[in-house]
Amino acid sequence: MDADHVADDLESVLLTEDRILARVAELAAEIGKDYAGRDVVLVGVLGGAATFTVDLARALDSQVEIGWMAIRSYTTSKRASGSVRLLKDLDLDIEGRHVIIMETVIDTGLTMSWLISNLQQRRPESIAVCALMRKPDTPQFAVPAYVGFDVGPGMIVGYGLDNRGHYRNLRCAAVLAPHAVR
């Protein structure tokens, strides 16, 4: 779906599909260089990171295995509570392997911190984070991070990100207008 199909719902388009895919190719080149010859597992966070994870995997010049996790972080009064619940665990054994956690946007960092801690307990060789977008004031993590774009505040939808199940199939990444937030 193109942005013009839901233009009245969008405040602005942050990243066009072409710009996203160009940056995904650059991130894949960086990762490919850094992990050449290593056994890499991409761990995608469902559902938002599915599109990003698959696009990055296809842009890599080497074999990777993809695993999926689904988690839910809870908010109270539109603020992160710090509570995270595992909905779907990783089906792969990552012990002794190089893991890259794939996320489309990192906001408060609470969910990512939980994921890093959870996966470290499984004794991987290394853990890194790859996020297409990072919002302001995101904390630094004690693991390497690949970041596509720093973006401003606002409800971001598209390229896998949704608002109550809508806009996930939008080809670009956009800020949802306040009146359209559900």
How are the SSEs placed, and which strands pair?
Layout: E1 10-15, H1 17-34, E2 40-46, H2 50-59, E3 65-76, E4 79-88, E5 98-106, H3 110-120, E6 126-134, E7 145-150, E8 156-157, E9 173-176
Parallel strand pairs: 2-3, 2-5, 5-6, 6-7
Antiparallel strand pairs: 1-9, 3-4, 8-9
What brief labels describe this structure?
182 residues; Rossmann fold; 3-stranded antiparallel beta sheet; 3 helices
Protein described:
The protein has three helices and nine strands. The protein is of the alpha/beta class and 182 residues long. The strands form two sheets. The chain has a six-stranded mixed β-sheet, sandwiched between helices. A three-stranded antiparallel β-sheet has the order 1-9-8. Helix 1 packs across helix 2. The two termini are 19 Å apart. The model has no long low-confidence stretch (mean pLDDT 92).
Summarize the structure.
Keywords: Cytoplasm, Glycosyltransferase, Magnesium, Metal-binding, Nucleotide-binding, Purine salvage, Transferase. Pfam families: Pribosyltran. With 182 residues, the chain is an alpha/beta fold.
**Count of helices?**
3
**Oligomeric grouping of the chains:** single chain
Beta-strand proportion: 35-45%
The number of domains is 1
Described by strand count, sense and barrel closure, the largest sheet is: 6 strands, mixed
Strand order of the largest sheet: 4-3-2-5-6-7
- Look at the structure and give the CATH class: Alpha Beta
Would you list the SSEs in sequence order as H and E?
EHEHEEEHEEEE
Shape: globular
Radius of gyration: 16 Å
Uncertain runs are none
Q: What is the CATH topology classification name?
A: Rossmann fold
Tally of strands:
9
Q: Which percent range fits the helix content?
A: 10-25%
**Termini separation (Å)?**
19 Å
The secondary-structure class comes to alpha/beta
Query: Can you give the mean pLDDT?
Result: 92
Q: Under the CATH scheme, which architecture would be assigned?
A: 3-Layer(aba) Sandwich
